[in-house]
């Protein structure tokens, strides 16, 4: 295309010739693309790339999404139910309407994986190294899985008759159905991890030697109940929570709790026991807790569910004495100015057939302590940043080591430890990649996200919940899961929304095509900053131009 | 038969309702929508009717609005389109000899005659039997509501087959920010300087609501649009192109230089002006309003005024406060007249 | 074919023969009959696919012409007087953009005071606008010039104004020789635009040009005018070949052979002047006439050649640059610079005042007697002027001049029928 020679000079000009005018020289600031860390990913103790798998799920690639989860977490079915989802507490979407129901999507994906028979990817070549994992709770399973994925042979020694640890003995089946636990474990077994049950380890060094293991990962958890001293005339009426939940799972005869059950404590375990008692037929299940609800460590949603099911709570109350015939003396407390409960001297009486103590658990440190070099402090095993104990080649994680005790934290420990063991086997150490800047809410432009409140997962009818151990919270169907996945804001990471490409008044954003994101054309970019202001997810930053 | 826009909520709904509430529904390229239904601006092969290298100021809303509108028209007409342009920023920053940013047939004649030039162009196309080549005329608010008003009204009244697009930045920016008939009350311009408390910027006249005036001509299609609502804007241009006869679209385009706002505030101000109710988005056919876009997140007028230095003086005197109240009253009236706060299913921008 | 027609109708029929594609119309006396008749012809289907646009002003009319011409359509409009001023901005624009529009100007005075009658003030006000300006002497020539105008315009890609005296020509019924469509088609090929807006080969028309190239742009526009000095006579001779008559051209000489005194004029008054000259020649007076056919470009060389043997030139014109003198005369003085030929300016016929043969006789006799002032107004009523000036001197605030003059005029009908004084 060009001008006819007869066109008037200067007044008529050839199209697109302004490309000769490089307006980039006007710029004082330049936009740059960056990837910020989404708050959900940052908050996930298992180190899941939540945003990435939500993005795959959003496109309907459920298998891809599931594989993305499996990169970091071998137990999505369990995590989607039992995790207290710190990701959702961190989710920026809660400042718009409500957090993305990440756990529900995760659960859907795991349900889907079992329906479709997807299997995790396992390398065909083996490294020749063999690692012993002691304990088959979440951290042990996680370590075994990741070590297997890294090409190592793995054997798990489990003291009990079944694998699963606290996932089986600590979490009631109405929250975590056993078939899910079994399927998630079976998948790890199918990868070639060897499970040796009913094998209680007494001498770690000897087992290591005997089995020819190159390294050991300890993951025996914390299953010794804490006991507070309470004067009692009838000790048979006092049970501990760990024992009750364990017996629910394994004993031939389920524990007899009676018509009136008092649970002492304010954690999730206390709530679990109270709800279990209800399901066992107790007419009254009363939680006695010495502080108020705000200070209660149990999660709000669990408490809500418990209250719906008829569990009663005596706030600001302590048990002073357990007397004859189930008469329990309690004392009212009041909070002082520092928020600490102080006795008031005001007494009351409760009646109970059973009192269940839910005051926390401790690690059985005894046999570990016998291992040379291992340091025990505050009843936990001390490890370095590689999760290695003072004994070279012996690593530990999960509830045994100082940290928050949740399934998800344990899974994270397992993963981290696996990577550390892998590195240690190569005389190296595992260095976690540095975290990029977090994509806080103020980095976003929330206008571009539609209002889309969280999908409420259906609940089992309250009356049925009181009498059965059926799963309380139902899963999402595909439509709802898709909906939830698509509520993700993709905080901090370009999701190719084309906003920058569209809003640039100078056409200075080059679209590279699906999956390839964009580039700035600094020949023409004037540095107005609209792209950064209008980027919904905070993936563009303006930086001063060097002069 | 005139087929309404391809991209309406109803069209997308049956396939999957889920799509409506998604990440990026309001973004330029909502990838959850079928490729064919996405905004023209998200396309790698959009025509870039105005290409890079133009000399618009940083963050120019008019450059953006013109590209949005014309790229859409180019898509709809398959490139069979020509434009007449009034004198003004858009003309000056795109075509300083020896360069032009236009990538389509384009001509500039005078400040006040773009509608008439376009009328002549469409007459030529009719005479030559090439009515599939469509004509667009465009100008700023000065060229439209003031000096070009006579020609515009004539073009309307004859129902010439022209789409006229006004890019309204509420003053004569090209000449250095002087008041136009579209300048809002209270605004500071070079000819309405707030010299003291008794003279708080532009007078509050009776207003000159050109979309309404266009409607009074009973022309087939009239719409208002804002550069912050791309999907809406594109749908309106597309719809406008589905009609024969005179059509008018009034596009709100912030001017960072003239308004004294940050260069990156262009889109956000174009959004706030709608969300306050100050600039209602609506469509009208043959003189009657056929659709309005409800406010999504209502905000008080102050939130729109504060980022703009042209309104800064209003916050410093009781007289200024009165002006703010008047502006808020205008918003309230629009909200009432256009029923902008009604409950509705959310539609993409 | 010979026809007895009103000048306006003759022009309208000539336009129709040129197969215009777009005609933009806004009424103003005295051009209205032309476009009215064009409209009638369009509606009767006698103009093919012509688009006939009624617009809302002269500014819009010429603006629409700009748009249609830029799209490669043969485009026509007509105006006069105030209308030409109202479109002034577009007049300059059309030529600046190089658009071959043809426009009739039915010459009329410009107010205030408002006056609908003939003089040349309107088109003279646009003399520097870059248009080619052709002046018709008779209705036949007006008709012929329009046919030539399209050809000139399209060959040069420049707009052409055909000036014909309002009422005197536009409203006069005369016999004209109307060409056939075959003749016109043979003479005037279909319009091939030198630049055209087209989606197939897009470009931008109307760029902003700064100091770096503006002078060159202006010079090139001037160059086009200079080219027209060749093109206009060429086309006039092409015209003669097909239509068999002399029409158009840059200038026309009449009885200049051996003339000591040459009257230079333009437009319809040339007829009256020639009649007067005929009588004086019969009486043995050495007097001749040169008619300016093309005022822009101004044919300086041709004019110099035509009057080179004369002693003096008397410019009789219907326009006047207030505060200076004759507009045409000024152009002629410039053309005759260095020749020593004395140039007199006579301003006549303003606002439709009849230019009568007795007045011309008196004027020319005076010239031959070497008694003519350098500058004079034909038939100026000095008694009225002097009385008004005296009154003004007597009063500091004398009120509107026009009103005061009217008070002093005794007769109120004397010039009311100016059109009937048309030269024959």
Features of the shown structure:
heterotrimer, B: 349 residues, alpha/beta, Rossmann fold, eight-stranded mixed β-sheet, 12 helices, globular, disordered N terminus, C: 424 residues, 3 domains, seven-stranded mixed β-sheet, six-stranded mixed β-sheet, disordered C terminus
What does this structure look like?
The complex is a heterotrimer of chains A (547), B (349) and C (424). By secondary structure, chain A is of the alpha/beta class. The model of chain A has no long low-confidence stretch (mean pLDDT 90). By secondary structure, chain B is an alpha/beta fold. Chain B has a single domain (47-337), classed as Rossmann fold (3-Layer(aba) Sandwich), CATH 3.40.50. Helix content of chain B is 33%, strand content 12%. Chain B has helices spanning 9-12, 61-77, 89-94, 114-127, 141-146, 149-158, 210-216, 230-241, 256-259, 266-275, 301-305, 318-337, and strands at residues 81-85, 106-108, 134-140, 162-168, 221-226, 247-252, 282-285, 288-292. In chain B, strand 5 (221-226), helix 8 (230-241) and strand 6 form a beta-alpha-beta unit. In chain B, helix 2 (61-77) packs across helix 8. The model of chain B is unreliable at 1-21 (pLDDT under 50). Chain C is an alpha/beta fold and 424 residues long. Chain C is 41% helix and 18% strand. Chain C has helices spanning 7-17, 32-43, 58-70, 81-86, 88-96, 121-125, 139-156, 181-187, 214-243, 269-282, 300-307, 327-335, 357-368, 382-394, 401-408, and strands spanning 2-6, 22-25, 51-54, 75-79, 102-107, 132-135, 160-165, 173-177, 203-205, 251-254, 261-265, 287-292, 294-296, 312-317, 342-347, 375-377. In chain C, helix 10 links the parallel strand 11 and strand 12. Chains in contact: A-B, A-C, B-C. At the B-C interface, strand 1, helix 3, strand 2, helix 4 and helix 6 of B face strand 3, helix 3, helix 5 and strand 9 of C. Strand 2 of chain B pairs parallel with strand 9 of chain C.
């Amino acid at each position: 295309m060009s001008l006819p020679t007869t066109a008037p000079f200067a007044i008529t000009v050839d199209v697109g010739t302004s490309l000769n005018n490089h307006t980039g020289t006007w710029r004082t600031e330049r936009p740059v693309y960056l990837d910020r860390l989404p708050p959900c990913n940052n908050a996930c103790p298992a180190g899941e790339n939540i945003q990435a798998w939500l993005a795959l799920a959003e496109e309907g690639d459920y298998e891809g999404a599931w594989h993305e989860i499996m990169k970091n977490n071998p137990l999505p079915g369990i995590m989607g139910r039992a995790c207290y989802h710190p990701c959702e507490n961190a989710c920026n979407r809660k400042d718009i309407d409500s957090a993305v129901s990440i756990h529900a999507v995760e659960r859907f994906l795991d349900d889907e994986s079992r329906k479709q028979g997807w299997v995790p990817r396992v390398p065909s070549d083996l490294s020749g190294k063999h690692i012993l994992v002691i304990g088959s709770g979440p951290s042990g399973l996680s370590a075994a899985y990741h070590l297997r994925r890294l090409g190592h042979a793995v054997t798990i020694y489990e003291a009990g008759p079944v694998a699963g640890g606290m996932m089986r003995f600590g979490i009631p089946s109405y929250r975590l159905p056993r078939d899910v636990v079994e399927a998630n474990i079976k998948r790890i077994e199918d990868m070639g991890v060897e499970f040796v049950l009913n094998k209680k380890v007494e001498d770690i060094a000897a087992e290591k030697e005997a089995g020819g293991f190159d390294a050991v990962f300890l993951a025996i958890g914390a299953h010794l109940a804490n006991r507070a001293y309470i004067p009692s005339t009838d000790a048979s009426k006092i049970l501990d929570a760990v024992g009750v939940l364990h017996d629910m799972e394994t004993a031939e005869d389920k524990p007899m709790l009676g018509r009136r059950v008092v649970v002492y404590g304010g954690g999730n375990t206390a709530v679990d026991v109270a709800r279990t008692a209800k399901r066992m037929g107790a007419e009254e299940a009363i939680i006695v807790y010495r502080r108020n609800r705000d200070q209660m460590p149990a999660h709000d949603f669990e408490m809500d569910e418990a209250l719906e099911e008829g569990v009663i709570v005596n706030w600001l109350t302590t048990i002073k004495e357990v007397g004859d015939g189930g008469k329990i003396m309690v004392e009212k407390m009041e909070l002082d100015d520092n928020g600490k409960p102080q006795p008031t001297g005001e007494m009351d009486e409760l009646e109970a057939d059973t009192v269940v103590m839910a005051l926390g658990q401790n690690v059985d440190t005894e046999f570990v302590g016998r291992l040379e070099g291992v340091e025990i402090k505050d009843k936990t095993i001390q490890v370095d940043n590689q999760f290695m104990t003072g004994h070279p080649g012996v690593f530990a994680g999960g509830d045994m080591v100082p940290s928050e005790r949740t399934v998800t934290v344990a899974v994270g420990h397992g993963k981290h430890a696996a990577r550390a063991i892998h590195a240690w086997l190569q005389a190296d150490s595992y260095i976690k990649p540095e975290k990029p800047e977090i994509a806080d809410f103020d980095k976003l432009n929330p206008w571009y996200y539609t209002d889309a409140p969280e999908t409420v997962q259906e609940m089992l009818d309250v009356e049925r919940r009181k009498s059965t151990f059926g799963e309380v919270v139902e899963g999402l169907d595909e439509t709802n899961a898709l909906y939830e996945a698509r509520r993700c804001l993709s905080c901090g990471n370009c999701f190719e929304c084309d906003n920058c490409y569209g809003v640039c008044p100078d056409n200075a954003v080059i679209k590279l095509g699906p999956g390839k994101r964009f580039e700035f054309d600094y020949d023409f970019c004037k540095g107005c900053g609209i792209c950064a202001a209008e980027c919904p997810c905070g993936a563009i930053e303006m930086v001063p131009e060097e002069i | 038969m005139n087929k309404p826009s391809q991209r309406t909520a109803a069209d997308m709904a049956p396939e999957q309702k889920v799509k409506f509430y998604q990440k990026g529904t309001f973004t330029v390229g909502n990838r959850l929508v079928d490729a064919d239904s996405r905004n023209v601006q998200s396309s790698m092969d959009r025509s870039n009717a105005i290409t890079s290298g133009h000399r618009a100021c940083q963050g120019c809303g008019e450059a953006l609005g013109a590209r949005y509108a014309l790229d859409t028209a180019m898509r709809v007409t398959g490139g069979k389109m020509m434009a007449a342009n009034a004198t003004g920023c858009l003309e000056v920053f795109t075509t300083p000899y020896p360069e032009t940013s236009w990538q389509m047939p384009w001509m500039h004649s005078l400040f006040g005659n773009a509608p008439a030039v376009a009328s002549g162009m469409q007459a030529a196309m009719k005479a030559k039997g090439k009515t599939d080549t469509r004509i667009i005329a465009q100008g700023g608010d000065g060229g439209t509501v003031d000096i070009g008003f006579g020609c515009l009204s004539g073009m309307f009244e004859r129902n010439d087959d022209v789409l006229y697009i006004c890019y309204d930045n509420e003053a004569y920016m090209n000449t250095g920010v002087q008041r136009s008939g579209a300048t809002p009350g209270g605004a500071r311009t070079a000819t309405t300087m707030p010299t003291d408390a008794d003279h708080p910027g532009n007078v509050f006249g009776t207003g000159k609501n050109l979309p309404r005036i266009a409607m009074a001509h009973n022309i087939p299609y009239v719409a208002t649009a804002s550069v912050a609502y791309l999907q809406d804007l594109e749908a309106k241009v597309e719809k406008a192109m589905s009609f024969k006869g005179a059509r008018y679209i009034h596009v709100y385009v912030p001017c960072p230089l003239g308004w004294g706002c940050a260069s990156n505030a262009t889109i956000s101000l174009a959004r706030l002006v709608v969300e306050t109710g100050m600039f209602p988005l609506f469509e009208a056919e043959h003189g009657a309003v056929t659709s309005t876009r409800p406010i999504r997140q209502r905000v008080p007028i102050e939130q729109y005024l504060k980022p703009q230095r042209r309104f800064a003086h209003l916050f410093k005197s009781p007289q200024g406060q009165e002006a703010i109240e008047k502006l808020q009253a205008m918003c309230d009236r629009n909200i009432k007249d256009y029923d902008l706060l009604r409950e509705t299913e959310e539609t993409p921008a | 074919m010979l026809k007895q027609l009103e000048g306006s109708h003759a022009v309208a029929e000539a336009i129709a023969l040129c197969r215009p594609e777009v005609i933009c119309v806004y009424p103003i006396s005295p051009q209205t009959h032309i476009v009215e008749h064009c409209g009638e012809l369009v509606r009767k289907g006698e103009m093919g696919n012509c688009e006939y646009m009624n617009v809302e002003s002269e500014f819009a009319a010429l603006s629409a012409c700009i748009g249609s011409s830029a799209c490669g359509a043969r485009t026509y409009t007509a105006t006069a007087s105030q209308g030409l001023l109202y479109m002034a901005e577009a007049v300059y624009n059309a030529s600046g953009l190089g658009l071959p529009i043809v426009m009739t100007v039915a010459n009329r005075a410009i107010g205030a005071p408002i006056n609908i009658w003939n003089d040349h003030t309107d088109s003279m006000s646009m003399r520097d606008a870059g248009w080619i300006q052709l002046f018709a002497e008779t209705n036949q020539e007006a008709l012929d010039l329009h046919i030539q105008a399209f050809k000139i315009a399209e060959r040069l890609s420049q707009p052409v104004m055909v000036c014909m005296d309002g009422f005197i020509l536009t409203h006069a019924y005369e016999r004209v020789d109307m060409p056939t469509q075959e003749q016109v088609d043979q003479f005037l090929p279909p319009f091939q635009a030198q630049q055209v807006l087209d989606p197939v080969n897009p470009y931008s028309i109307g760029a902003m040009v700064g100091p770096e190239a503006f002078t060159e742009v202006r010079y090139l526009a001037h160059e086009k005018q200079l080219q027209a000095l060749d093109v206009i006579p060429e086309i006039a001779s092409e015209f003669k070949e097909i239509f068999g008559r002399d029409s158009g051209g840059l200038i026309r000489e009449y009885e200049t052979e051996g003339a000591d005194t040459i009257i230079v004029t333009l437009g319809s008054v040339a007829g009256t002047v020639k009649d007067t000259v005929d009588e004086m020649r019969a009486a043995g007076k050495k007097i001749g006439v040169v008619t300016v056919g093309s005022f822009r470009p101004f044919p300086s060389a041709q004019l110099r050649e035509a009057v080179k043997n004369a002693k003096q030139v008397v410019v009789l014109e219907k326009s006047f640059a207030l505060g200076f003198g004759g507009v045409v005369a000024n152009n002629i003085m410039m053309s005759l610079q260095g020749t020593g030929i004395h140039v007199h300016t006579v301003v006549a016929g303003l606002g439709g005042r009849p230019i009568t043969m007795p007045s011309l006789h008196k004027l020319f006799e005076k010239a031959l007697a070497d008694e003519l002032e350098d500058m004079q107004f034909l038939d100026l009523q000095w008694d009225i002027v002097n009385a008004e000036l005296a009154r003004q001197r007597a009063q500091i605030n004398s009120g509107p001049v026009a009103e005061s003059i009217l008070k002093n005029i005794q007769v109120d009908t004397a010039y009311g029928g100016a059109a009937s004084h048309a030269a024959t």
